[in-house]
Amino acid sequence: MMRSRIGPACLAAALAITTVSGSDAGPSPPPPVREGAPLRDPPQLVSHNGILRARLVVEGRQVDVAGRKLWALTYNGHYMPPTLRIRPGDRLELAMENRLGKYTNLHVHGLHVSPSGHSDNVFVHIHPGQTFHYSYRFPANLASGTYWYHSHAHPMSGPQVAGGLSGIIVVDGLKRYLPPDLRDITEHVIALKDFQIQGNTVKTKDLHISAPTNRTVNGQLNPTIRIRPGEIQLWRLSNISANIYYKVRLQGQPFQVIAHDANPVNRIWAADSLLLAAGARFDVLVRGGPPGRTQLQTLPYNTGPAGNRFPQATLATLVSEGALTHPTAPPTTFAPTEDLSHAVLAARRTVVFSENKAGTEYYINGRQFDPNRVDIRSKLNTVEEWTVRNDSNEEHSFHVHTNDFQLMSINGRPHEGHGWQDTVSIPPNGQIVIRMPFTDYTGRTVLHCHILNHEDAGMMAVLEIVK
């Protein structure tokens, strides 16, 4: 099959810088979506003997997206690209070839790895026609769970991710905390990825966050997921969209959370719905109900007076059929976690997220992003407590690279998340308190709002970790 390249007009649209809108009007709910084809898990590139050697080609191509032929930005020719699957202690040698008309790069979201050199360095620019060789060496104690990868090419992160540049990373080892007869259960990637359309192209120019959009699972509209009554499956719920939130519910059945942002929990907890702010992930156990059909939905959600309103939509249909199974019940306790409640603190900081009234400029501590300025300097092998305050009338999705954190409180109320995370939504005119350890790696990295429209419009800061 001949490979098609994106045309000049489409490429210009695909790489234009996003127009930010802080108070988009909420659209009417889209019409019901017909039940689709069986869920397709992404192809996998899997490490062997401690190393994964892979190549990602970034280019514009006409691909099948949710049953339509559309121009999109792709990794290896796919709107839903390969899952990179590794183990703790592995190496990842990844060659990235850029066939776009603008520079790009790669961020391995949530992974505890060096932010410098040829590792998770978001200051790298891979220019058109260049191939950059990433080299990641992961620690032996790397947390097991679901991560993701995406473009972090400032100020084009929003357009490039909205155009299709996002995929899944799995670090194996999560199932070892389950009883033996649950270690071979079926697992599915449930990658939540939305797209807007302009003509025959996945839209990247003048993106409005609240505009009508197509919410897909693994690039499919309302795919069918099959399960047997009583069967337990592992679902890797991942918000890998550029800007939007998902409040996910499986009608009539709770989720059993075993990891949050690729951090195994110390105690499995149940939830009727889960809020996946931009960039967030949950690994969950799902049990098949009585024979029949039920919907995986995203519920209506409002991020505040200056924010965005997301309507209810059907994401997938779960079909329970076949012989009843009686697997072992999951345990209550799960994985060991470290509690930072009594940690010795090297510093306490206040980090303020804010924006202008027009919703066109975004700030951290009153300043817009400058890659040549260090905003926070922290010492290796210490723990800090940050109060992250939101002085705006909309939620922001706080994310920090390199090191995860323990969420201590939200608006002054103690929070028990049963583990660590790398992303959290800050309420409008509210605040969170986190405690974060700086371990293993020094170098320059970033913290930012993971609503990528906001990041591109200035809501990012440089964090330098020093000895």
Automatic annotation (TrEMBL):
GO terms for biological process: cell division. Residues 21-42 are annotated as: Disordered. Keywords: Capsid protein, Cell cycle, Cell division, Metal-binding, Oxidoreductase, Signal, Virion. CDD domains: CuRO_1_Tth-MCO_like, CuRO_3_Tth-MCO_like. Residues 1-25 form the signal peptide. One of its GO terms (molecular function) is oxidoreductase activity. Residues 65-172, 210-287, 359-464 form the Plastocyanin-like domain. The keyword Oxidoreductase applies. This is Multicopper oxidase with three cupredoxin domains (Includes cell division protein FtsP and spore coat protein CotA). It comes from the Bacteria. The keyword Transcription regulation does not apply. PANTHER family: MULTI-COPPER OXIDASE (PTHR11709), MULTICOPPER OXIDASE (PTHR11709:SF518). It holds the Pfam family Cu-oxidase_2. The lineage of its organism: Bacteria, Bacillati, Actinomycetota, Actinomycetes, Streptosporangiales.
